[in-house]
User: Which sequence fits this backbone?
């Protein structure tokens, strides 16, 4: 093999043993083992209130996130490791209607909701788990969130972490590792 360069095989990815597999509706995700899944049905009023707080008034472009939310919450829970202060909450939603809009338009809708604070939103296009993902993050006073948007299986998927600025700064790598681990179940045709 004189003169020929052999390309080494890519390393086989090894699962991160500090993460645990959680099953949700239509998806699964690896999260730190300190995360606690909550019952989506009993938490639905709280989930809807949280999303409405996040997206602002009903006239927002993003109000579609709460339309037909039943059955479209992929996962809901919190990180018990920092529950004494303010637990990091994770809500994963899927939305068929918003999947037809460009993610850039959804990002603009979010910036409109934030008004004067929209300058505080960092927006990045990144590749996580082989997907094109738009990451939006925001931090002001005692509030911080990181939102990851991507399209797959005819849905817009949103993974939303709600937390404090200190938690977000310390946990952003975990958020990205978890979002990159999301596996979307094969879509079953509706009868």
Assistant:
């Amino acid at each position: 093999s004189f003169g020929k360069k052999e390309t080494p095989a890519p390393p086989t990815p090894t699962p991160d043993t500090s993460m645990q597999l959680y099953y949700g509706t239509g998806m699964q995700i690896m999260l730190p083992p300190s995360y606690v899944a909550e019952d989506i049905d009993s938490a639905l009023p709280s989930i809807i209130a949280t999303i409405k707080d996040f997206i602002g008034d009903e006239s927002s472009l993003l109000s579609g996130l709460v339309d037909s939310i039943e059955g479209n919450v992929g996962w809901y829970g919190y990180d018990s490791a920092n529950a004494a202060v303010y637990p990091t909450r994770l809500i994963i939603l899927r939305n068929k209607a918003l999947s037809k809009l460009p993610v850039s338009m959804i990002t603009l809708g979010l910036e409109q909701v934030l008004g004067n604070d929209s300058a505080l939103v960092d927006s990045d296009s990144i590749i996580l788990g082989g997907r094109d993902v738009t990451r939006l993050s925001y931090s002001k006073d005692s509030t911080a969130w990181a939102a990851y948007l991507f399209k797959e299986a005819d849905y817009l998927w949103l993974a939303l972490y709600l937390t404090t600025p200190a938690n977000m700064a310390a946990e952003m790598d975990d958020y990205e590792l978890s979002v990159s681990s999301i596996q979307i179940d094969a879509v079953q045709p509706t009868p």
Remarks:
- Residues 8-15 have pLDDT under 50 and may be disordered.
